[in-house]
Amino acid sequence: MKNYIIKLKFTSPVRFGPDRAGAGLTLGNETCHSDTFFSALCIEWLKIFGEAEMNEMVRWAEAGHFILSSLLPWKGQELFLPKPVLFLEKSNTRKNEPAYGKTLKKLKWIPASAFDSYIRFLKEGGELPFSQEGNKAWSEVLIARAAIARDKETMPYVISAYRFPFGEAERHHQPKEPLPETGLYFILKIDSEELMDKLMIVLESLGLTGIGGKKTTGLGRFELAEEPIEFDSNSGLYDSDTALGKMLDRTGEFYMSLSVVAPSEEELEAFEPQESFYTLVYRSGFVESASYWPSPIKRRPVAMFGTGSCFKAPLCGRILDLSSGGNHPVYRYGKGMYLGVKI
């Protein structure tokens, strides 16, 4: 298996819906869960290569030969990882130690190059091992739109979206200094050169189609920020991917998920919740495929382990079929990708 980091730069704002059902258009997420991203890849794969090739890709993924993470933030040379859902008893308490309670509560992303130092900080206390200033890779924007229907009054509404500055892609800004390069990336584990070549074709096409919500209004367009970066535990271009390569291949006291996970029935029976730290995300929504049903129809909802959950042993996960009487399967990606957490 080869490991790749694939960095996306966004040429327009992008909208990802919130995890909370019924939250409306004025709330959103800055990143995209792996199941949503995989569904977008499936739809684009179907358009380009046809149903047989798309089903073959899904079979490769189900067998563990094509595994991807959620979309995570990057800024410059730094890659960010989700804050681990991990509660550790401190080995010692120092006098006059800074209080980070409110800071940690708001913290969502950890620089990959400082991840091990952050775990030591949770265990031993002391100073937070990285500065939060300048780490934010995005800004939230509220976009006004109008719903136009025949014989009805035009109704304005507002969409929450996120902007990832990337140099000249932000032409409406005229800063005194160059804008930082930011975006989202995903980690890919793959063992087929042919499948990798097809993925690159699909990503180029998907960048024109867009990902996320409200694509018909121009949101979610992206390009590759650079060529895919191959990495492992012994190589890397920067501190961040070097650190990531070591953590991805190592064993640990815990295993932190970099994707949303849908465990198999056997894994659920063997799962011991008291030994793990995790969140659950409720996944629902409409089937995007126009060929599934003549009119929009909701897919069956499912609960999954969230990105950042920490387990004593990694759960392999599975790909679910959430179809319900439609014309084809509705896949929900739930395969696990993990990094080893050393305590």
Automatic annotation (TrEMBL):
Keyword annotations of the record: Antiviral defense, RNA-binding
Any Gene Ontology biological process: defense response to virus
Signal peptide: none
Domain Csm4 C-terminal intervals: 252-341
Pfam families: Csm4_C (PF17953)
GO function term, MF aspect, one: RNA binding
Protein family: Belongs to the CRISPR-associated Csm4 family.
Record's protein name: CRISPR system Cms protein Csm4
Organism field: Koleobacter methoxysyntrophicus
Lineage of producing organism: Bacteria, Bacillati, Bacillota, Clostridia, Koleobacterales
Gene: csm4
